[in-house]
Amino acid sequence: MLVLVVISLSSGLGYRFYNQPQLDVGKVAPQTLTAPNSTHIEDVKTTAEKRREARSGALAVWVVDSQVNEQIKQHLQQLLAEGEQIREQVGKFPLIQTSVLSTATQTYLRQAPEAEWQTVLQTLEKNTKVAGLNSTQQQALRNLRIYRESNSSQALSQLLKAIAQARQRYATTLKTLNNNAITQATTIYDGSFLNLSDADWRETKIQIHHTLERMLAQGIYPGLSAINLDSAIEMQVSVSIPKTAQPVAKRLLSAVVTPNLIKDIEQTKLIAEQAAQAVEPTIVSIQKGEVIVKAGEKITQADFVLLDHFRLSQRRIDWLHLTRFTAIVGLAVAVFRLVEKRVYAKLRSSDYALIILLTLSAPLLIFLTKSFTGLPAIGLLIGSFYGTAIGGTVMGLLGILLSIGTELNWHDLIPSATSGILGGLMAGQWRFPGREALRTREELATLGILIGLTQGVVYLLVNTAIAPLWYAVLGTAVLNGLAGLLWSILALGISPYLETVFDLVTPIRLAELSNPNRPLLKRLAHETPGTFQHTLFVATLAEAAARALHCHVELVRAGVLYHDIGKMHDPLGFIENQMAGPNKHDEINDPWKSAEIIKKHVSEGLVMARQYKLPSAIQAFIPEHQGTILIAYFYQEAQQQQKHNPEIGLHESDFRYDGPIPQSKETGIAMLADACEAALRSLKDATPEVALAMVNKILKARWQDNQLVDSGLTREEMSQIAYIFVQVWQQFHHKRIPYSKS
């Protein structure tokens, strides 16, 4: 069976391998082939490659990022402000007019070592010549002596005092720069910066701003190496900034200059597309009788275009690749079977047939339309029929197989596959514990809108990466979204037919079958009102237990509502419909005949279920809720009659239902709820403990009678069910305030 499935899927999904050229590009021609006719045809593949190369080779368009420029300027302004604070600490410079003391002399006197400064002072005071003074010291002494000769001693004293104070401020500031924690400011500003005159510093700041403006206007590319950036800064600084200030200017600009160009995606794609469109189509021409390819030569792309055009490429089945693809399909089927076992999905042959049919519809659509896959509809249908795990698995595997076995473009397949997987997961969400199912067609229609929106958005995202402009694919993306919605509508339309043909139950169909206005349920309420009330209470008990045990709640509810429809064949044969009237079985006075009447509600129920075309999953509740239990009351009556007349033959099988016993947790819960309903109704003033003991006794009897061995229910779950039944009973029989008799 599995081999047949794999072959069927491989044959349908791998149709691309049926028509592969034997004389393909790169193959050696076995013989010389000539053109039977003259022709001029376009080499579509080569044209596409050239256009792709033109797109990739087009230059990017870069634009200045004004926000980055603003950040760079603010950063520079911050560093300059820190420099101003440092210069305020050291004081103004020069101290006096340079016509009195040269800038070089003032610079030396402010930064000279203390020993040299003291030597200068002593030499000036003694007015003698001291051997061993360097030229800078000698120049400083000459300037000071000239100042002394042209000014009073008091003026000289004030000058020397000002120099001493400047030296102290200079030393303190320099020490602060050297000893503070390393910051960006301390790495930029040093002694050479302190030696700049105020005028030079003002000019330097102006030129730094101008230099930065020029560099930002020219643009700095991302990825520019640090060496190249430093070279550019050095070239700009050397042109406009005083030589003494160039080191600090370089450090300032190096600290703030960062790439300020960003790629204009839209313009870049536009230029790339213009370059691609400018590429002329590659035309392959040949005259009748000319040689296409000689024997022993390798077939080129141009040769192949001509061979394929003249149908000389010898297309046939590619058995090698088809065999490999079949192996991949076999692996996918194995994964599906593994998931099926993990989620305990009991699939029938008809279920496998439907899944295969829906799966094969995808390659058929691709073959016919070249673009449509139908995956959104397939995902919705499989997910709603078989649940999230099966739906998601099938759609994921199908997407992979289609990408290998068909020639559909990946940018068309990905959006469709994504929406299909979404449909498969969300349409079957009842498989997750605690999650509500999609119970109405309206909810499924809403999901269809979400699927269409998803397909459109994913198409836009995927194709924006390869399209020149996002708005160039916007229209196609909208059409893809509408296609996803239309596939969802199609799934909604054919779902009822598939449910009927393949005997399926979905949460939506079960919700529809549970509607009390359904013809069979209306008959049940009218013809057997007692049975109908019994059914409602059993349904309440069973639904509560099914929800607690994470079973199929919708199936339990619908199945229990129809489990006793067979009682309509003889309503008065069941005590709940006798309305305090005479008991029909007392008049019959034949336990064998009475047992036959009781048992007949199962067989007649199945007849009615088939007549009304109820799903087999619902029909299973009719015999399985009774299993093979003993009709004890009439069996005991028969035993009494046998005591009086030993010649009467008594067989226990005559008083047992025909079965089968419950085959699932859902029908097992229905059996237990049916057994406990009458007993719980009979309790009036009993305590919960008494009710629980009675329920446990009934459940124990069913367990010991081996009625639940095939249901999958465990002992722990039986205890949980008993507790839930008592809870529901308490909710029905809560105390009320007594009304006054008056």
Blueprint (SSEs and pairs):
Blueprint: H1 2-13, E1 20-21, E2 33-34, E3 39-42, H2 44-57, E4 62-64, H3 66-90, H4 103-111, H5 114-126, H6 135-150, H7 153-179, H8 184-188, H9 191-194, H10 198-218, H11 226-240, H12 246-256, E5 261-263, H13 265-277, E6 283-286, E7 291-293, H14 301-309, E8 315-316, H15 319-342, H16 349-369, H17 375-386, H18 388-405, H19 410-427, H20 441-464, H21 474-501, H22 507-513, H23 519-527, H24 529-548, H25 553-561, H26 584-588, H27 591-611, H28 616-619, H29 621-624, H30 632-644, H31 665-682, H32 688-704, H33 715-732
Antiparallel strand pairs: 1-8, 2-7, 3-6, 4-5
Helix pairs in contact: 1-15, 1-16, 2-13, 3-12, 4-6, 4-7, 5-6, 10-11, 10-12, 11-12, 15-18, 17-18, 17-19, 17-21, 18-19, 19-20, 20-21, 22-25, 23-24, 24-25, 24-31, 24-33, 25-31, 27-30, 31-32, 31-33, 32-33
Annotation keywords:
742 residues; mainly alpha; Arp2/3 complex 21 kDa subunit ARPC3; Hypothetical protein af1432; 3 domains
Characterise the protein shown here.
By secondary structure, the protein is mainly α. The protein folds into three domains: 153 residues, no CATH class; 192 residues, Arp2/3 complex 21 kDa subunit ARPC3; 205 residues, Hypothetical protein af1432. It is 65% helix and 3% strand. Helix 10 packs across helix 11 and helix 19 packs antiparallel against helix 20. The longest helix is centred in the middle third of the chain and has 28 residues. The radius of gyration is 48 Å and the shape is elongated.
